[in-house]
Amino acid sequence: MISTNVPTFRKNLRKSGSRHRAKARSSGPNLKLQIEYDGTNYCGWQIQKPPNSRLSTPDSIQETIEKTLQQILQEKVKLIASGRTDAGVHALAQIANFQTKSAIPLKKLQLALNGLLPEDIVITGITKVNPGFHSRFWAKSKIYRYLILNRPYPSALLRKQVYFYPYPLKAKLMQKEAKALIGKHDFRAFQGADKKERSAVRVIKKIRIAKFKDMIYIDIEANGFLKNMVRAIVGTLIEIGRGRFSAGSTKKILFSKNRRFSGPTAPAKGLTLMKVRY
Q1: What pLDDT sits at residue 3?
Q2: Phi-psi bin for 82: left (phi > 0), alpha (psi -120 to 50), beta?
Q3: What confidence tier does 201 reach under pLDDT thresholds 50, 70, 90?
Q4: Among 39-53, 151-165, 208-222, which stretch is predicted with the lowest mean pLDDT?
Q5: What phi and psi, each to the nearest 5 degrees, are found at residue 133?
Q6: Do 123 and 214 fall into the same domain?
Q7: What span, in angstroms and rounded, lies between the C-alpha atoms of 234 and 271?
Q8: How far is CA 36 from the centre of its chain?
């Protein structure tokens, strides 16, 4: 029985795979976009408004690009992103993919998109990828950077990209405390309220905190992030750097799995998605 069932299974699998490949070919190429944007004027990456809604909420990055693609390609487009960014969060290299029936040259498509999109959204690259490529599920890790302008006076030019914090911060102490977060942990203590029940276990691969002149850079790489996770971590590290939380607090807060014990959520404008690794 075993020997007769195996060939049948393999035969069916080949047929199923052929149908999948044929369907992918019929739907056209799978294109990957690399996107840079200033999130100040948007409600975040993901579409928030229900279809035909009359609510006057800001547009999302996703719907802005989808509408522009539809205008160029004359077909409905659904973007799949590496992950959502919240309202006010920026991106240097967000990744999204979509399938199209169009055979438009990629350079021409990039030029057309950048000519029609608002100035705060730029397509920095378009490539043709494997039909099965999925921006979210294929991502191995993401790198976020948080910028703190740490001096007595703000910046007129950087006001939308940094968090101005006028009180002295000890960057070296912040780096020392941040080491407790590296590795696989339950990060519920740094999770914002979420409508969906999901595992809070994530793996932080690297955390680097450095100060150069008046700017503090906080880079965090992980296999995934919870809602407001980076901003809650930053808020906690700021409390430590200012001396409001004692040494060893980060580890205690992490193991508490309770958001009440961690620091405030840092403002969105200081956060940028820097890179998605595949």
Answers
A1: 35
A2: alpha
A3: very high
A4: 39-53
A5: -60, 135
A6: no
A7: 10
A8: 12
Assigned domain for 118 exists: yes
Residue 86 falls in the annotated catalytic set: yes
Residue ranges making up the domain that contains 68:
14-129
Domain boundary among 129, 157, 172: 129
Q: Give the whole-angstrom CA distance, residue 143 versus residue 155.
A: 25
For residue 147, give both structure tokens: 């910028």
Are 213 and 90 part of one and the same domain? Answer: no
**Residue closest to 239 by CA, chosen among 262, 205, 217, 211:** 262
Q: Read off the pLDDT of residues 47-94 as tens digits, 9 standing for 90 and up.
A: 766 656 566 667 999 999 999 999 999 999 999 999 999 999 999 999
What is the DSSP annotation of 164-183? E--S---HHHHHHHHGGG-E
| Long-range contacts at 20-26 (CB < 8 A, ≥ 24 apart) | 21/131, 24/99, 24/131, 24/132, 25/131
At 97-118, the pLDDT tens digits run 999 999 999 999 999 999 999 9
> Total structural domains in the chain?
2
Model confidence, pTM: 0.86
Catalytic-role residue among 38, 59, 86, 120: 86
- Predicted confidence at residue 73, as pLDDT, reads 97
d(CA 21, CA 255): 46
- In 3-state terms, what secondary structure has residue 161? coil
Please report, for the domain that includes residue 118, its CATH number: 3.30.70.580
What is the pLDDT confidence band of residue 2, given thresholds at 50, 70 and 90? very low
Environment class of residue 68 by beta-carbon count within 10 Å: exposed (0-12), middle (13-18) or buried (19+)?
A: buried
Rg value, the chain, Cα: 22
Predicted pLDDT at 145: 98
Domain boundary among 129, 157, 180: 129
User: Are 78 and 59 within 8 A, CB to CB?
Assistant: no
